[in-house]
């Protein structure tokens, strides 16, 4: 009997902390979940905040150039009252991962920013062509995905467009031409000899296609 008591006692002692531990798992789980949610919440908040045009303006406000060019464009104000912010055309929306990785890449721009790479109109003009080309390459690579988050050929009412435009778009859709092939300099001033620079890019991508088979 005594042995049995001992057994159950030691058994209970043995079990008690174990069941406490077991209780600890869901508690710990909830804590981790709560903490995770808070972290994710602040991260989403940060991501959201850093996707706003005002954030881009921290470095790109440049009263003399980017801002007036953007604010004069049809993507800042138009008959429909739909505004495209910087992030709509320059940051991915398809998934969280590409948004986060692009943000990290953008945050490296703090270095050239601190070095004053584009802090005057003259310096900006010096670099405009290479920066525009970087953006064009990106749009060629992703088939103007950022434009397509708002515009789509199959949502276009070709009847409502004038004939030349509609034919251009129907052919572009068939031939797989991308928005940026025909529409550039719509928000920002075109770099000098834009069409020549654009041909360079088209050639690069044509070569790439040929090499890739
Ligand atoms: C920390 C300052 C800073 C912030 C914030 C910033 N940028 Fe930039 N950005 C720069 C600098 C500096 C360059 C020039 C970098 C270079 O060419 O090496 C640049 C270049 C660019 C380019 C040219 C293409 C390229 O890859 O070089 C684009 C497009 C751009 N930024 C868009 C944005 C957008 C959109 C935002 C807001 C989401 C933003 N930037 C926020 C400093 C910044
Ligand atoms: C946030 C949504 C949005 C994004 C992203 C967007 N657009 Fe637009 N776009 C609009 C709206 C809204 C209008 C104006 C419609 C109207 O006329 O009322 C417009 C107008 C246009 C026009 C006709 C007016 C003009 O300025 O010639 C062209 C061309 C155009 N967009 C091309 C593009 C291209 C190319 C891209 C990608 C670089 C792009 N859009 C990205 C919403 C967007
Ligand atoms: C083959 C050249 C070509 C391609 C590729 C092209 N467009 Fe156009 N688009 C035109 C032409 C030409 C017009 C007539 C106005 C102009 O010259 O800008 C036009 C006009 C427009 C307009 C104004 C329509 C209107 O009736 O007001 C929008 C919006 C537009 N394009 C969006 C796009 C988008 C988004 C893409 C990519 C999905 C695209 N286009 C691809 C040639 C093209
Ligand atoms: C409707 C789409 C659209 C919007 C909105 C837009 N951009 Fe751009 N951005 C482009 C395209 C397309 C290019 C490539 C050059 C060109 O075609 O003008 C570009 C080029 C750039 C460049 C490279 C230098 C240059 O002048 O070409 C910078 C920097 C830049 N954008 C920053 C911004 C910032 C900051 C905002 C918000 C104030 C913004 N963009 C809003 C489409 C857009």
Explain this structure.
This protein has 2 domains: 1-49; 60-212, no CATH class. It is built from 11 helices and no strands. It has helices at residues 2-49, 53-60, 66-71, 86-90, 96-107, 110-114, 121-141, 145-148, 163-175, 179-182, 194-212. Helix 7 packs parallel to helix 11. The structure holds heme C (HEC) (4 copies). The site of one heme C has 20 residues, from helix 2, helix 4, helix 6 and helix 7.
Defining key terms:
single chain; 213 residues; mainly alpha; 2 domains; 11 helices; binds heme C
User: What ligands are attached or bound here?
Assistant: heme C
Q: What is the count of β-strands?
A: 0
Mean pLDDT: 82
The DSSP helix count reads 11
Q: Which outline best applies? A: globular
The largest pleated sheet is described as: none
Distance between the amino and carboxyl termini: 85 Å
Rounded to an integer in angstroms, the radius of gyration calculated over CA atoms is: 28 Å
Strand content of the residues, in percent?
under 5%
SSE string: HHHHHHHHHHH
Helix content: 55-70%
Low-pLDDT segments, ≥5 res: 1-6
Question: How many structural domains does the protein architecture include?
Answer: 2
Helix/strand/pairing category: mainly alpha
């Amino acid at each position: 009997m005594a042995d049995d008591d001992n057994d159950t006692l030691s058994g209970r002692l043995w079990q008690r902390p174990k069941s406490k531990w077991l209780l600890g798992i869901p508690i710990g789980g909830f804590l981790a979940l709560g903490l995770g949610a808070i972290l994710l919440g602040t991260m989403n908040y940060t991501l959201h905040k850093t996707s706003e045009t005002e954030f881009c303006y921290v470095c790109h406000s440049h009263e003399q150039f980017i801002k007036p060019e953007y604010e004069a464009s049809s993507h800042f104000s138009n008959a429909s009252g739909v505004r495209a912010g910087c992030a709509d055309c320059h940051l991915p929306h398809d998934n969280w991962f590409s948004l986060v990785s692009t943000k990290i890449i953008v945050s490296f721009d703090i270095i050239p920013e601190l070095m004053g790479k584009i802090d005057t109109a003259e310096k900006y003009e010096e670099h405009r062509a290479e920066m525009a080309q970087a953006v064009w390459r990106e749009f060629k690579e992703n088939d103007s995905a950022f434009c397509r988050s708002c515009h789509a050929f199959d949502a276009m009412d070709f009847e409502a467009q004038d004939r030349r435009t509609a034919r251009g778009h129907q052919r572009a859709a068939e031939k797989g031409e991308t928005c940026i092939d025909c529409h550039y300099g719509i928000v920002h001033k075109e770099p000098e000899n834009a069409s020549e620079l654009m041909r360079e890019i088209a050639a690069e991508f044509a070569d790439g296609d040929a090499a890739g088979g």
